[in-house]
Amino acid sequence: MIHLSSARTSPVRPRTGAVRPIGVGRVRLDGGFWGTRQELATRAIVPHAMEWMRRLGWIQNFESAAARGPYEHRGREFADSEVYKLIEAMSWDIGRGAEVDEETLERLIGVVLAAQEPDGYLHTLFGRPWQRPRYSDFQWGHELYCFGHFLQAAVAHVRATGDTRLCEAARRLADHVCTMFGADGLNRVCGHAEIELGLVELYRETGVDRYLEQARIFIERRGTGTIPLHEFGQAFWQDDLPVRDADVLRGHAVRALYLAAGAADVAVETGDAELLEALRGQWARTVARRTYITGGMGSHHMDEAFGEDFVLPPDRSYCESCAGVASVMFSWRLLLATGEAKYAELIERTLFNVIATCPSRDGRSFFYANTLHQRGTHTQPAIDDDGVAIRGGASGRQPWFEVSCCPPNVARTLAGLGAYAVTESDAGVQIHQYLPGSYDTAHGRFRIESAYPDEGRILVQAEAPMTIGIRVPTWAEAAVLRHGECATPVVAGAYAECILEPGATAILEFALEPRRTSADERIDAIRGCVAFERGPEVLALESVDLPEQWALEDVVVTGGPRVQDGDTVVDVALRSRGGEVAWPYGSDRGGRERGGSAPVRLTRYHDWAERGPSTMRVWIPLAG
Amino acid sequence: MIHLSSARTSPVRPRTGAVRPIGVGRVRLDGGFWGTRQELATRAIVPHAMEWMRRLGWIQNFESAAARGPYEHRGREFADSEVYKLIEAMSWDIGRGAEVDEETLERLIGVVLAAQEPDGYLHTLFGRPWQRPRYSDFQWGHELYCFGHFLQAAVAHVRATGDTRLCEAARRLADHVCTMFGADGLNRVCGHAEIELGLVELYRETGVDRYLEQARIFIERRGTGTIPLHEFGQAFWQDDLPVRDADVLRGHAVRALYLAAGAADVAVETGDAELLEALRGQWARTVARRTYITGGMGSHHMDEAFGEDFVLPPDRSYCESCAGVASVMFSWRLLLATGEAKYAELIERTLFNVIATCPSRDGRSFFYANTLHQRGTHTQPAIDDDGVAIRGGASGRQPWFEVSCCPPNVARTLAGLGAYAVTESDAGVQIHQYLPGSYDTAHGRFRIESAYPDEGRILVQAEAPMTIGIRVPTWAEAAVLRHGECATPVVAGAYAECILEPGATAILEFALEPRRTSADERIDAIRGCVAFERGPEVLALESVDLPEQWALEDVVVTGGPRVQDGDTVVDVALRSRGGEVAWPYGSDRGGRERGGSAPVRLTRYHDWAERGPSTMRVWIPLAG
After folding, report:
1. Per-residue pLDDT at A208 exceeds 50
2. Do A607 and A487 belong together in one domain?
3. Do B187 and B145 fall within a single domain?
4. In whole angstroms, what is the distance from residue B544 CA to residue A283 CA?
5. The predicted structure's pLDDT at residue A395
6. How many CB pairs under 8 A join A and B?
7. Do both B451 and B502 map to the same domain?
8. Does B296 contact chain A (CB < 8 Å)?
9. What is the CATH number of the domain that holds A450?
10. With a CB-CB cutoff of 8 Å, which residues 481-520 of chain B face chain A?
11. What is the ipTM of this complex?
12. Does the distance separating the beta carbons of A575 and B384 come in below 8 Å?
């Protein structure tokens, strides 16, 4: 199999934009926080997910469809897409030069190709004589959604390997979609956006204009009321308003973010500046009003959806791991289009506090939802006869879910992560994420060394002369760029630039003291509370770190943070109470006597629930 | 038709207890807050609900079943029960001597009786050759649930009219249930408790022991894991723990409260003191930790369920109107068993702030959920082709819902409301709710005069010598009982007793000043906020009462409350902000400059959204 080490191996490859991606094939991560997790994805998460998909029959669906006989479909409407995400993850792994189980991948590709219908249609749940008809359920059928993931996987595979089989199948499928849903075809959109991303990327790969045009049609068609009414409201699938008329993301978070990412792709490729501007506005208002401190999005459990402005209750934060993936996808496209640091900063926040939180350290269990406040240790999800969690539970990571979109979605993100660290432009290279490793750009090679996020020091050394821009986080205090003899103070929230000569180094340094953070008072649920952060990492107070007999719900912050023996420590006191009050409302319920203070260590949010069942708070009430 | 004016006309008629109900037939309400609403139910809500049930085919289901030919069932699994609730409401209306449309009622009874199967089974969605089999879906089928409502309606009808036809049908149905689900029958319970209440009341009406025994079996069987797993968790249908082992209500609020009420009935009739004690403990902990200031219960939209302790976000309060009805049912049974004032007080709070909030003033639209914080004026539920709201929207009352349990449930409660005001015992009579009207008790007649809740003055005058106990609310300040020459200070939260001679009056007086209320700090979502109450009524700040251009979300309380021109007024200030902040978290997000204060009037919570679309808060941030 051919391993292509070129810019081709980028998950997203716009034809225009402020900066250009360099692709996983030109990056070698060198351990560190993210290199370790990328290896975890390759060695543990992908095999774990493969095992579950085989056990539950999701792979068997393709084998059965390929055999052309009657069979009972296993799993949910979107089970096909999980298999495609694995193919995508393994493709990026190949692209970055990792060892993958190519025999298994080849078998997967074989059955998927064999399951495709002669007219290009490819979904294992619909359309066969014993099944529901094709396109009979645009609300929940997820046909076009699965197609979209197939197109993404096919593009990943051809970019990483040069093998065109999946890409050819993707073209047959895309041609079928264009015929069925083109300007003169069915006036429908899928209940779950995703096909748009796949079509644009296939257009970028093949140059076939009709795929871009079809994506544009789907984007323009959404919001025109083509999806039947549902109790969640039509904003759930963003069919309430045309994409360009909305001013904020709303409805189901993953749907909203995939749609926005797909719309950004269309805007960039068609030169639709108005649409791009609308999307930038939606991003800004969503980040200002509908995003948790972790970068997590979605505050409704019922419909996995965005709440209204400032509805961000920590104890009902949904923050689906897949919404984190989707947020990175949307921000990345805007970053490529504009080169603005704020998009890279949200990506970083989301990576450290959503994506890194999802898998356990052994890569064998996962958070589906990511709560910011866990009140009880007992809230376990229902487990079915297969040992599968029926829905994401908040109190601990689970090996697998009935809806198991998150594990393979995180796997494909980690596999391709190298591509998100650095971009290039005619003027130079831009460093967005401080991932230690070596990078091969149009301007030559350079490497990054850093123990970030433990240390606030990022060293860059180039092999060729080049202009580099290093992002300085908005929260960075006393940031300086050391370059040659100079130590220049640099502006937070922008890119610090310098010209590097071969062998010379530039070092970005900033303080990484823990900091206390308060919130806009309009976020009702955390009024009077503070959170703690250190660098890009949100910290949390876990019950296992409290003195014995202290209940987390009775704890208030009295001082801190400070660093003690390498840990971030805060002082907390216990509210003492005089027994149960019969009714929690009255003229005298506001204040309580408090006991003595004690120092407690905070844990990194992404590490919580790694030491057994615990309760946890990111936002802690402030004393007084 | 016979109108029976006896103690028989009570919705709940325990064979034992601290106090005894007197029945709707011995009460004549004389206008006032509740008399007006009772008339509204009879004259507007019941006909409105009847019209919708006919339009949507829910009554036609019975006609079709009676015709014994194939038909397509209309509505949800529990549509039958809504028709039964209307029969129950009309029965209590007859019982209280109101004019009802007896021709329509007679037609309803006719088709329901004709739809019953020869073996007693009665459900229009299951068991016919073209339908799903009987008892094939204990999670969602609602068969036993519908039976329970039928038993309640049948008992209401025979108690109010003496007409035994429905009661005989109920006995055939109950006999069928006992055969199918007895100790030797199917080891199953319904996903939604309700049958237990109906069986016990039928036992009370008929004296047939096996109905009580069957109710006992259902109560004991729940919590033993007979319901298949579901993503909501088994607490959703209270199948996680045996009833007597639980220490708090949990899961779906209406299910939990109907179950608790049925279990209280079983405990009382079987003399099961341990079970009764367990239920009293569950009530106390639920009220102390899981109840909104309105008396509303349920803080999850996803599963219409109780949250964990102190999870009571106002902006996601579900507080289903039916949970209010169910809470009254549970508290009423504990009040009858114990005679304790706290149960009557929660009933009062729930009546004024949940039940009274549900219907609009014209009785033609309803709240399904009752939010305590409405952020936007735009959140309308989806409306289907029939003009039906697909789920309860929080921003305005709706004419009808796909799940339209609340309108007929509120109607039956209002129709029977007279029965909840007063009880009797061998020692005398007890006044729990200050409903002006005349009451005919075992000790003779008496009447109540009061403009409550506008005034804190309740006059009682008896026609015969009797001992009366008048409940004094816990929030009542400076309460005195005027009797003859004396004005005796009385204790809040208990019954003030006196002996009344014929013609003499006792007058309970207390201050009704508006009061400012804070909350237990463990309720995260309202930390730093205050609410306002006056008497039993919770007040709210509605955007239509703010100065123009003031956004409710930017308002803080600076002073008050005080009374001004008969209204309750508070001082509020506007937080001024310097434009949009890109990220709502940081070291400086806690404080904001504030503009000048202005007085604004508060509205009674049950009156909100009567003046067009508005935003609304019960809990308002306190300045400083």
Report:
1. yes
2. no
3. yes
4. 31
5. 62
6. 190
7. yes
8. no
9. 2.60.40
10. 515-520
11. 0.89
12. no
Provide the whole-model pTM: 0.91
Residues of B whose CB is below 8 A from A383? 229
B499 and B561 share a domain? no
> For residue A377, what are the β-bridge partners?
none
Which residues of chain A have a CB within 8 Å of the CB of B517?
A: 585-587, 589
Co-location of B52 and B182 in the same domain: yes
- Asked if A231 and B382 come within 8 Å (Cβ–Cβ), the reply is yes
Average pLDDT in the B110-134 region?
A: 97
d(CA A205, CA A90): 19
For chain A, the domain total comes to 3
Residues A540 and A393 in one domain: no
CA gap A251, A303 in Å, rounded: 8
pLDDT at A541: 98
Instruction: Give the model confidence (pLDDT) of A238-248 as tens digits.
Output: 999 999 999 99
Cβ-defined contact of A309 to B589 (cutoff 8 Å): no
The domain boundary residue, chosen from A422, A453, A471: A422
Give the span between the Cα atoms of B43 and B180, in whole angstroms.
Answer: 40
- Determine whether the interchain pair B520/A581 forms a contact, defined as Cβ–Cβ distance below 8 Å: yes
Mean pLDDT of A158-179: 98
pLDDT at site B174: 98
A165-181 and A195-206 helices, crossing angle to 10°: 120
Cβ neighbour number for residue B221 with a 10 Å cutoff: 18
Whether residue A231 and residue B529 make contact (CB cut-off 8 A), yes or no, is no
Looking at the structure, tell me whether residues A540 and A500 fall in a common domain: no
Inside any domain, residue A433: no
The answer to whether the Cβ–Cβ distance between B289 and A583 falls below 8 Å is no
| Pair A21, A7: CB distance under 8 Å | yes
**Residue in B231, B554, B585 nearest the CB of A519:** B585
> pLDDT tens digit string along A442-474?
999 999 999 999 999 999 999 999 999 999 999
Rg of chain A on CA atoms, in Å? 24
Render pLDDT for B339-374 as a digit per residue (tens, 0 to 9).
Answer: 999 999 999 999 999 999 999 999 999 999 999 999
> d(Cα A556, Cα B276) in Å, to the nearest integer?
38
From chain A, the residues in CB contact with B528 under 8 A are 527-528
The CATH number of the domain holding residue A416 is 1.50.10
B206 touching A (Cβ < 8 Å): no
Mean pLDDT, range A586-612, rounded to an integer: 84
Backbone phi, then psi, for B225, in 5-degree steps? Answer: 80, 35
Asked if B231's CB is within 8 angstroms of A382's CB, the reply is yes
For chain A, what percent of residues have pLDDT higher than 90?
A: 85
Flag whether A427 is in a domain: no
Residue at token pair 């009274």: B356
Contact between B521 and A589 using a beta-carbon 8 Å cutoff: yes
Does B147 have pLDDT greater than 80? yes
The answer to whether B529 contacts chain A (CB < 8 Å) is yes
B233 to chain A, any CB pair closer than 8 A? The answer is yes
- All residues at 6 or more sequence positions from A238 whose CB lies less than 8 Å from its CB, including other chains: A193, A222, A223, A246, A250, A251, A255, A256, A259
> CA A290, CA A269: separation in Å to the nearest integer?
28
Q: Are A255 and A323 in contact (CB under 8 A)?
A: no
- Structure confidence at residue B316 as a pLDDT band (50, 70, 90): confident
Residue B457 lies in a domain: yes
Per the structure, the complete domain to which residue A324 belongs is given by 7-227+234-422
Q: What is the pLDDT of residues B180-190, one digit of tens each?
A: 999 999 999 99
Angle at the Cα of B90 (from B88 to B95), degrees rounded to 5? 95
pLDDT in tens, A317-337: 899 999 999 999 999 999 999
**A249-296 pLDDT tens trace:** 999 999 999 999 999 999 999 999 999 999 999 999 999 999 999 999
> For residue A511, how many other CB atoms are within 10 A of its CB?
12
User: Based on the domain organization, do A251 and A156 belong to the same domain?
Assistant: yes
